[in-house]
Amino acid sequence: MSKKTALYDRHVKSGGRMVKFAGFEMPLAYQNGIMSETKRVRSTAGLFDVSHMGEIEITGRAALEFLNKIITNDAANLEEFQVQYACMCYPDGGIVDDLLVYRLPEKYLLVVNAANTVNDLEWILDCKLGFGGTVSIEDTSDRVSQLALQGPDSQRILDKLVDFDLEKMRYYHSQYGKVSGKEVLVSRTGYTGEDGFEIYSNRNDATLLWDAILEAGSECEIEPVALGARDLLRLEMGYCLYGNDIDETTSPLEAGLGWVTKLNKDEFVGKDSLVKQKVGGIRRRLVPFELKGRAIARTGYPILSEGRKVGDVTSGNFSPSVEKSVGMGYVELGCETEGTRVQIDVRGEPVEGVIVKSPFVKSTSLKR
Question: Given phi > 0 = left and psi -120 to 50 = alpha, else beta, which region is 180?
Answer without folding.
Answer: left
